[in-house]
Amino acid sequence: MTTFPLLVVLLPFAAAFTGLLLSRWPHRRAALTNAHGQEEPAGHATGRAAGGTTRAAWIAILPTAAAAILAVSLAWVPGLAYFTGATAPPPTGQTYGTIGTGGIPISLVLQADALSSVIGVLVTLVALAVQVYSVGYLEDDPRYPSYSAFISLFTSAMLLVVYAGDLLVLYVGWEIMGLCSYLLIGHWWEDRGNSRAAVKAFLVTRLGDVGFLFGIFTLGTAAGSFRITDVLAKAPDMAPATLVTATMLLLAGVAGKSAQVPLHTWLPDAMAGPTPISALIHAATMVAAGIFIVARLFPAFLAAGPTLDVLAVLAALGMLGAALAALAQDDLKRVLAYSTVSQLAYMAGGLAAGSDVAAVFHLVTHGAFKALLFLCAGVVIHHVGSNLMTRMGGLRRELPITFVTMTIGFAALMGIPPTGGFFSKDGVLLAMDDALSTGVLTDAAALLLYGCALATVAVTGAYATRAWLRTFFGPPSAVALPEPEPGTAHVVDVREAPRSMLVPVILLAVPALLLGFAGEPHLDLGMAVVSVVLAALGAGLVYAFWRIDPVADPARLLGPLRVPCERAFYVDTLYAALLVRPVPALARLVVRTDDVLVDGAVRGSGRSARVLSGVLRLAQNGNVQLYVSGLLAGVLLIVVGAVMFT
Amino acid sequence: MHIVYPAVVAALLFSIGVYGVLARRNTILVLMSVELMLNAVNLNLVAFDVWLGDRLHSGQVLTLFVIVIAAAEVGLGLAIVLALYRNRRTVDIDHLRDLAEPPGDRPRPPGAHPDGRRERHDDEQPVQRGGGPR
Fold first, then answer.
1. B115 vs A: CB within 8 A
2. What would the pLDDT profile of B13-62 be if each residue is shown by its tens digit?
3. Is residue B106 included in any domain, yes or no?
4. What is the ipTM of this complex?
5. Which of A36, A102, A196, A380 is deepest in the core (most CB within 10 A)?
6. Looking at the domain assignment, is residue B29 inside a domain?
């Protein structure tokens, strides 16, 4: 039992290793292609690709499944205890030695306590669903083996983050996650836009990670240890300034990874990756890692009041802004991406309001229903061959199973009872309501947070309804399908997606629907009524606009706000003007300075030395007699000098 | 005999030698001028040996050494001149300028450029091998 955390981390890692090295071995492709030339029959080609894919799929799925079973067995007792508030059993795990650094040692601790075992289950189950789903989604992709191996690597890294008992070990997993996110967003790198999106995601999260690393250093130095338990034990004794500095720095990393307000711009662009990746990394797990970190170090954050205020303001701005942006997007995946930003801001708001349990509960339900939504969106996109909702419509007859599951997902997103999202969102709202009176936050921040959260409930209802109506209802769009671009999925003629895609979707719909009953749902009737009424208000407004004209976009209810919402309030434009363009300009200036000043000095000294030496070279004309004359003249000079001066 | 006479003669001989070395174009004549200088030195050695009345006659002994060395030097020098003539068809010292700085702005390191070797030997003639004595 104590080695389970290590096994859970190592199994997907071994899968990634094996998948990258062995899934195409032995390498026979070159010989076959040369033998057949261009006239190779299509069946032969697909058969061979399917052979490689099948092996890679088994390599990817089996260890993930084993890890999921282990994670569930780890979480059986402490997971429930976390939500019911019972005293959790001591963490299961082991210390695998320490690394002496000359200063504070790094201890290799892997352990599953209540919080990490819950998140571990979420990660492994969603990863398993995504791995199975990817088999169908990318079945004729030539790079499927490396793709599935990267997912395995990502799973391993995320589990390392979850189970790490030491901040620096955690940071290792944190960075590998960022790398995998970069690799997988750029899966279809042939399209320049996709690789640019990958670079953007990498750079923006890296910007936050710098702060995160220094936050870890500050905390570790102040506590004299990087072990999370030691840090949390010493947190109350630390100087308030140290604590605020450390948590603010950590907050930068959280904002980067969890796509919170100043650094959220990478997440909508990250939708350039394959849809299962969006489900796994950019909805359910990696972006939730930031929230997880705050929950992990929650006592430290709770002791740093200003940080919580900042977190509350960022969350308030993020949840409402992202929800409004989601209301105006036409790309289905971008709608879901902005929705993810908004929901993550909900969790951040819950944490800022002082309730980590509510936030983590929302994290878990959100992981389930947002992964479900993304996977359903993948089915829809797979079927339609486009991400744009203007190309969709009337799909409920063609995709009945997806219609049902996606409806469950949207209901959970809106917080309609009895879905999981209803209970968790209720818990978060309740925590924010409590924050008004308990004084965790300053009054202004608490009020802003609560107001924005209530407004967001309504906007969430609106955008979820809009996406649902525009995808599944209304007249089917009669647009002729163009050739799919490299960044989109493939057009398939079957009526419903392959079974490998439908089974994970159906299985994920179950937790999305029923997860609210796990533990003891803390239900407050008044709050529930308020949130449901608000969500229904937003939904009803959109429905009314949609009824007037089912073809037109209900986003027109935003009026003049529509264009700013569609451009996500010009944050990207602002960053482009403030950062993206000045940096190359500065770089060009540096290059010119280097060319003219530094290189100029070097080149000038070389050239002047050569010109001066040219004067000396005039004497070296090769005439020996001239040399001897010079010698004689020199000797005479010396003699004359010797005679005169002695 | 007064010491001045041989000294003046030796000085004249040496000056003629120096002039020959510095001014003549023919390599053989340059060698001969070197011999003149050596012999001027020899004359000085003998004369001063007599004038000083050295018991060990070290001046005469040294003269013998110089003569031997001069013979060897001339043998070696003439051999070089002969080899030079076989290679270049000239013994004009003005045309033997291989030690000059190569023309052009930037001197290339040897081997850096395929033309690097050629440009130092513009007046080189093709080597005749196995020509035998003439």
1. no
2. 999 999 999 999 899 999 999 999 999 999 999 999 999 988 889 999 99
3. yes
4. 0.71
5. A380
6. yes
Query: Quick check: is B131 in a domain?
Result: no
Domain residue limits at B48: 4-120
Q: Give the residue from chain A lying closest to B107, CA to CA.
A: A610
Domain count, chain B: 1
Q: What is the largest CA-CA distance in chain A?
A: 121
Of B93, B101, B106, the CB nearest to A625: B93
Q: Domain ranges for chain A, please list them.
A: 1-165, 306-477+494-515+522-556, 600-645
d(CA A568, CA A558): 13
Q: A217: which residues sit within 8 A by CB, 6+ positions away? A: none
Residues 6 or more apart whose CB falls under 8 angstroms from that of A199 comprise A182, A186
B126 occurs within a structural domain: no
B103 Cβ under 8 Å from any chain A Cβ: no
CA distance B37 to B74: 13
Residue segments in chain A with a per-residue pLDDT below the cut of 50? 30-47, 492-494
Q: Which of residues 600-639 of A touch B (CB under 8 A)?
A: 610, 614, 617, 620-625, 628-629, 632
For residue A624, which residues of chain B lie inside 8 Å, CB to CB?
A: 93, 96, 99
DSSP codes joined into one string, A54-68: HHHHHHHHHHHHHHH
pTM: 0.76
Domain at B20, CATH number: 1.10.287.3510
Q: Do A505 and A365 contact (CB within 8 A), yes or no? A: no
Angle formed at CA A80 by CA A78 and CA A82, multiple of 5 degrees? 70
